[in-house]
Amino acid sequence: xxxxxxxxxxxxxxxxxxxxxxxxxxxxxxxxxxxxxxxxxxxxxxxxxxxxxxxxxxxxxxxxxxxxxxxxxxxxxxxxxxxxxxxxxxxxxxxxxxxxxxxxxxxxxxxxxxxxxxxxxxxxxxxxxxxxxxxxxxxxxxxxxxxxxxxxxxxxxxxxxxxxxxxxxxxxxxxxxxxxxxxxxxxxxxxxxxxxxxxxxxxxxxxxxx
Length: 210
Hints:
Layout: H1 5-11, E1 14-17, H2 23-36, E2 40-44, H3 50-60, E3 66-70, H4 75-83, E4 88-90, H5 96-104, E5 108-110, E6 112-113, H6 116-125, E7 130-132, H7 140-147, E8 156-159, H8 168-173, E9 177-180, H9 191-209
Parallel strand pairs: 1-2, 1-9, 2-3, 3-4, 4-5, 6-7, 7-8, 8-9
Helix pairs in contact: 2-3, 2-9
């Protein structure tokens, strides 16, 4: 059974960012994430052999989680992700060509943005959701101001420096979800360690959304 983005995002609006993960370790780490409740998994393209990892995860979790690539910078990479079975295309920037190619392929486009100009250009190009990045350089007040003009039904995720203890102000300002990097996974982390961190994030999110 296929899994669409609205369903996956409603179940768990947290994106696991596995920057640096290797293909030979990605499946048990994916198991730990999915068992904790994650439904969105990203392997950045600057990881070791990322297309192999994406292919393994997409095959393993079909119908249970959406898998794709992060740090997607070119239209050629979009096609690589599609051929590997990935469904998520996540970028650090708002590259109109990348967003349009992703939308044309029927995949989920989640580009990074920082300004309203970038946000509306991304939306016009076909973005499914936006990620405010890097969040370390922004504030919840900035997000609140942007949310006043962005489409109400457009998911906005916060990415950069997020941990279970600092999500609340962003949610209060209008964040719909988060991208989770080094606080969830660092190269060399075991599946057990990732599972423990994943459960802490899930618990933190559930407390905020209760």
